[in-house]
Design a protein that fits this description.
Layout lengths: L2 E5 L4 H12 L3 E8 L6 H13 L3 E6 L34 H16 L3 E3 L15 H13 L2 H4 L5 E3 L7 H10 L24 H13 L4 H4 L3
């Protein structure tokens, strides 16, 4: 069985991406990163999701990007609420986050002898992040094959972003068709102290729109969470 290292945040996108790769026959090695994010509760969700997916390995790393700052997710900057979602890069962009996370995934994949790396990035229903675009994924894949011992010796690393051209509704519909329980996930950028989603940040708004467009109720809303 082929293996993949999948970045698993605990959000519905990475959960669905992992499930799609599993359905395609990959054995999952999940990597979750504590990078100084204020919505650290997503790591609890990542553990729940990893268990539900039956991953072969779940590896957690810490890289404190809060010391770098520059983002509402890692610094003392207000998370924007009730804004109109557009393709402008918002203050919730974490400088070079996907490059950092994919580099960690690449390092672990090379150490494991795994050629495939998965990520739940999406270019349609997203918040304007430059590292969620197809051209970025192609560029990182090229970098992976230039920057590693395995690549130089002939291994071809592949970056899988199965959600790239899907709307949030399509992502949810695909996940439900695979039997996923989205009550296990966490999406909010600025949850309350008890973990309740704010319902007003970009991530909450995109999630709510996705469930509405899919014509199904968000199980977190149904549970009052």
């Amino acid at each position: 069985m082929s293996e993949v290292v999948i970045l698993l945040s605990g959000g519905l996108d990475s959960y669905t991406a992992a499930a799609i790769l599993k359905a395609e026959g990959y054995q999952l090695n999940a990597l979750s990163v504590r990078y100084g994010q204020r919505h650290v509760r997503e790591l609890d969700a990542a553990r729940r999701v990893a268990s539900a997916l039956g991953v072969a390995r779940h590896f957690e790393l810490s890289v404190d990007l809060s010391r770098v700052g520059g983002s509402a997710l890692t610094a003392d900057i207000d998370v924007p609420k009730d804004r109109t979602i557009d393709q402008q890069i918002p203050v919730t962009y974490v400088p070079a986050r996907n490059t950092v996370l994919l580099s960690l995934a690449l390092a672990w994949a090379e150490a494991l002898g795994v050629n495939d790396i998965g990520i739940g990035a999406n270019a349609l229903d997203y918040s304007g992040y430059p590292d969620c675009r197809p051209e970025y994924m192609r560029a990182f894949e090229a970098l992976a094959n230039l920057a590693t011992k395995a690549g130089v010796e002939g291994t071809r690393f592949r970056i899988h972003a199965p959600l790239m051209q899907m709307s949030k509704a399509q992502i949810i519909e695909r996940g439900l068709s695979l039997g996923l329980d989205y009550a296990l996930t966490h999406s909010c950028y600025d949850p309350s102290d008890d973990g309740r989603p704010c319902g007003r940040c970009d991530s909450c708004v995109l999630r709510a729109k996705g469930f509405a467009d899919a014509g199904v109720r968000d199980p977190l809303a149904a549970a009052g969470r």
